[in-house]
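Many introductory courses stop at the sequence. We go one step further.
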Amino acid sequence: MKVKIGNYPYRLVCNIHTRHIEKKYEGHSYNNHTHEDYVLEAIEEAVQSVYNMLNWLWLDRRTQKIKVRIDKSDTWSMDSTLAPIILPMLVQLKETKHGAPMVDMKDVPKELRATKKQLDACGKTGDVDPKHFERWDWVLDEMIWAFEQKCRDDWQGDYYEYRELGMEEDKGDNLFGLKLVWEDREGAKTHQERMTNGFKLFGKYYENLWD
């Protein structure tokens, strides 16, 4: 496999008013504009109109350059091939993200779910509930953990142990001269179920993997 993906084409954007509002109100809703707010909004619109012309003439005509070569061996175990690529991307996304999407309450532990009272209050103010961002962090952590395990070829080894048979022991019914001396089937099942759920969350929230 060989993948070469260029940077996303950028556009000229004026954020004078937007940054001012974000800094002034820190993400909270607001109703009353000040004179300064209106002035900066007008400046932003004027500058952006010029930017839009430049974007239309040049920047918007560019496309992202992507070159991908897939070898036959890459699909022998496609899940294992993709895991070491997806894992560091998820880790970086969690470190650099600037927001969080809506997460279904049923997908997270009970302690991270919002109460009906909290949701009703958010509906009136337009704010998010206190656990909104924690839920997304939890979902990302579960995805990351699942792909970490997929990158481990031997995670099942945490749940069983073999030893070599002695010279005097019968080797006829044992695997490659090894004898199983300990196993935790329930633990292995729970481990696999958590991995499967992490991959399920990855698929469900795939379109929310943005920074």
